[in-house]
Amino acid sequence: MHFEILVEDQSGKHALDILVPKIIGDGHTFIVHQYKGIGHIPKNLKHGVDPRKRLLLNTLPRLLRGYGKTFATYPGGYNAAVIIVCDLDDRCLKVFREELNDILNGCDPKPETRFCIAIEESEAWYLGDIKAVKSAYPEAKDSVLNKYVNDSICGTWELLADAIYNGGSEALLSGGWQAVGREKSQWAVRISPYMDILNNKSPSFIYFKKRLLDFDSIDFEK
Asked: What is the pTM of this model?
C-alpha cells in the first residue's frame, strides 16, 4: 500500500515522517507533502485558486481530482490512498467533514481518501502522550500538563508552549508567527520519536492511526 499524505505545515511533516513508519511498518510506502498553511475551501470547487500559494484546502479540489485520475491509470488499479491531515482550529467538526466529503464526491474517479482532523491542533497528538513530552522536555511543567483534557478546545499549542517554552506562549508569540512555526517544528522533531503509538490518549490521533491500519483489510481488486 502507498500513502500520499497531505499536511498543512512543516511541523506536521516532521511529525508524520517519524510517526507514520511506526504505524504502517515496513510493508508499505508513503510520502508526506507539506503546504504553507491550511487556507480555505474555495467556493468554486472546479477551479480553486492559484496553486502556487501552496495552501492545503485551497488546492485540495484540484489535488484530489488529480490523484483520482492518476490512480485510475494503473492497470488493475493502484493500491494507494490519500490521507489529509489538518487542524480543526475553531471550525465545526461536522460541517468541516461535510465540506471535505463534498470535495471528494466531486471527483470522478474518486481516489481512496481519508480525512484525519486533529482536534483542536496537531499539538493535541503530542499531549496525548505526556510521557513523550516529558522525555523530550524533562523540565516541562507538570502543573500545566496535568490540567490538559485530551482533544479539548483550549488553545492547545499555547498550553504546550506554557509547559515547555521559556516564558510560555506569550514569550513565544512575541517573536511573531514565524518564531511560533519554528518552535512547533522543534516540538515535532523532539517529541515524536518518543511517542508510543499504542498508548496515545488523543482520540483524533487514535482515529488517524486506525484509518491507516484499516487499509490492510481493503481488497482493491474487487
From this structure: 0.91
Cα 101 to the center of its chain, rounded Å: 17
- Domain interval for residue 177: 123-194
**Within-domain flag for 222:** no
pLDDT at 79: 87
Q: Determine the straight-line distance between the first and last CA of the chain, rounded to whole angstroms.
A: 15
CATH of the domain at 92: 3.40.50
Residues 154 and 169: their CA atoms lie apart, in Å, by 13
In the chain, the largest separation of any two C-alpha atoms, in whole Å, equals: 57
Q: What is the pLDDT of residues 137-189, one digit of tens each?
A: 999 999 999 999 999 999 999 999 999 999 999 999 999 999 999 999 999 99
State the pLDDT confidence band at 46, using cuts at 50, 70 and 90. low
User: Which of 10, 11, 2 is CA-nearest to residue 30?
Assistant: 2
Half-sphere exposure of 169 (CA within 13 A, CB side): 10
d(C-alpha 17, C-alpha 61), whole Å: 24
Based on the fold, state whether residues 86 and 9 are members of the same structural domain: yes
Residue 184, C-alpha cell as written in the block:
512547533
CA–CA distance, 104 with 154 (Å, rounded to integer): 30
Distance CA 55, CA 35 (A): 6
Residue with the bigger pLDDT between 20 and 77: it is 20
Rg (CA), the chain: 18
Quote the CA–CA distance of 77 and 85 in Å, as a whole number. 24
